[in-house]
Amino acid sequence: MPIQSTRSQQCLALPIVILQRSRVKIRPISGQGPINATFSVLPTTADTIVNVLRQWTTRKPKENDNADAHETHSITQEITWRTEQIYRLAQIRHQNWPKTPSDKPTKQETDERYENYIKEIEPELDHNEEQIREWLELNQDAPLISIIIPTYNTNSNHLRECIESVCRQSYPNWELCICDDSSSAVSVKTILRSYQSSDPRVKLIFREKNGHICEASNDALRMATGEYVALLDHDDILADNALYWVARELQKKPQANLIYSDEDKINDDGMRACPHFKPAFNIDLLLSYNFISHLGVYRREILKQIGGFRVGFEGSQDHDLALRTVLESSPDQIIHIPRVLYHWRAHSESTASNPDSKDYTTESGHKAVQHFLDEQHRRGGVRATARIKAKNRFTCQWHIPDKSPSVELIIPTRDQAEVLNLAVDSIITKTTYTNYTITVVDNQSEEVATKNLFKNLKRVHGEKINIIKYNKKFNYSAINNYAVRKSTADIVVLVNNDVEVISSKWLQEIVSHTSRPDVGCVGAKLYYSNRTIQHGGVVIGIGQVAGHAHKYFPGDSPGYVDRLQYVQQMTAVTAACLAIRREIFNEVGGLNEQDLTIAFNDVDFCMRVHARGYRNIFTPYAELFHHESISRGTEDSPEKKERFKREINFMLNQYDIQSNGELPSDLFYNPNLTKIHEDFSINTSPESVKQGIELRSNFRRMKDYYLRQ
């Protein structure tokens, strides 16, 4: 690309013609100095280019501009003329360009938002003394909760604050079981004995020999007589109503084996920050890292059954305990309370502020995850291998059956030969999984280039490519249903014609999950052409119906609490790349081709798969570009707008179970997070948060969550 010199500056000679998809890094000169920029260039047509340029350069030409090019000259000349205006005009702004940078909020902004949440939202979610007293009178059979604390040379102030947080509990039916692991600090024993003498609910045991946290925790556990056991670290703090909210949930869901809450971090000045608003129980995320953590409350009989804490898993003993409890539980016996009930102490020696402070925890966590995988395989599950990805972060490789499943990739298309060719070529040249075929569903293509491409694909790739015709009006649902009816593959993958494969093992990763008997839909991590996130799973309830998790985040962002980097259960995934076993596709009746011809058919489909008890999975290890809507254009005509409105109304009629004019807060999101944006920021509506928490509490089975009662 030659550099063109002008009197004022040097610039690229325009227009630039690139014959294939490219990423071009250049350094445009600004008044403030050079800035780096990456431009992703896609195949397009001259008509499309000139339409865009007309939006950017609306000024009529002057006489010395050789007349208005689009009236007297060819399209190519008009492109040249309008491109030159980009360098001449002082104000060039496309209507869709953001007015301000959409950078992630700074830490200060995030902390301020949480401070506002604590002041404005949290008080609206709590119960007052009268409400609590009334509930206690009506629920005198509520369970005894034993809190166990292992201590060892604890900071005196932290220890007092920890025990005081238990003594302040509005729920009185508790006992505190403390085991001191042979502390050398005299102050620790003095503090413990003072609390024992002042409250008969405080139980103490002093070990003569230091045995580390697992042995100390087991000694504390042996003192417990409550039906449920809560774990509390010796320097952390319970919210004043923590046990009250746990007891209320247990009264509603006595089947619970494990209850966990949201949490945040607290410093020595009592300042709270870094809230972790968690999803409902999510075994794949738990295998990636211990998101359950605090507050964790366990049925004591289960802990006795599994043998309590295991020596040798120190540092990740609570992760190991949670995983072994899950092995003895159904998913509906693991209950999430979306309230911040636990404040995790952040100081220099704690993992809350310094993950490296206990570097042995990663090895312990790895052992715990692999033990879970081995045990579930012994009980008939799919074999899997855990690997360490980062400190206290793990990935699981699920093994594909010896006879690899057959896969059919279904790609609907209409013309746009360059777009389709990019998708097909990237699949064939990059995919390492071999037992697949590609079925291109031709929806009335007319262009000669497209027909020539079909012939060439068949000639070059033979039986690897099938071309079938669908000679009816465009209906995304009907087209895919038609192709699946003709399929004999074990697994079908719905693929848009405007995707491009990035990771060579993308299909192998997807097949490994669809081969798991309890998994339904599997979705991929999708990027826009500029490497920002297009899809990290679908979140129900955002923007009235649904939105894409982490949309527009930088491609290398870890996401909210690392959720862009690890496999997890989601309610839904986009059909731009959606895999499912063909038998399940048929079991739920395929996509809804009567009511959802274009939009939300994938969301509705995934929700019906969820209602059948299957788990839908997002994996970040299957990566593709999604050059969204290149082939179909925007939803801007009156007809398209009316159709879109009808499809929204259908989704509301089906799933608006609270009659709020929007779908409920997603199970695998959190009602404390925004339903307006896709960035996991804090929900600023107390009413929205309250409704989400109440709805979550009223359902016993996860599969029923989105269904009208």
Question: Any descriptors?
Answer:
21% strand; alpha/beta; single chain; ten-stranded mixed beta sheet; 34% helix; 709 residues
In short:
The protein is of the alpha/beta class and 709 residues long. Helix 6 runs parallel beside helix 7 and helix 12 runs parallel beside helix 13 (361-378).
Strand content: 15-25%
Total strands: 29
Count of runs of 4 or more consecutive helical residues: 21
- Assembly state of the chains shown: single chain
- What structural class do the secondary elements suggest? alpha/beta
Mean pLDDT: 88
Main sheet attributes: strand count, strand direction, barrel closure = 10 strands, mixed
First CA to last CA: what distance?
64 Å
Q: What's the helical proportion of residues?
A: 25-40%
Radius of gyration: 29 Å
Shape: elongated
Uncertain runs: 60-72, 90-103
Model description:
The chain is α/β, with parallel strands linked by helices. Helix content is 34%, strand content 21%. The chain has 21 helices and 29 strands. The strands form seven sheets. Strands 18, 19, 20, 21, 22, 23, 24, 27, 28 and 29 form a ten-stranded mixed beta sheet that branches. Strands 7, 8, 9, 10, 11, 12, 13, 14 and 15 form a nine-stranded mixed beta sheet that branches. It has a two-stranded antiparallel sheet with strand order 1-2. Helix 1 packs parallel to helix 3 and helix 4 (107-125) packs across helix 21 (686-698). The longest helix is centred in the first third of the chain and has 19 residues, at 107-125. It starts with a strand and ends in an 11-residue tail after the last helix.
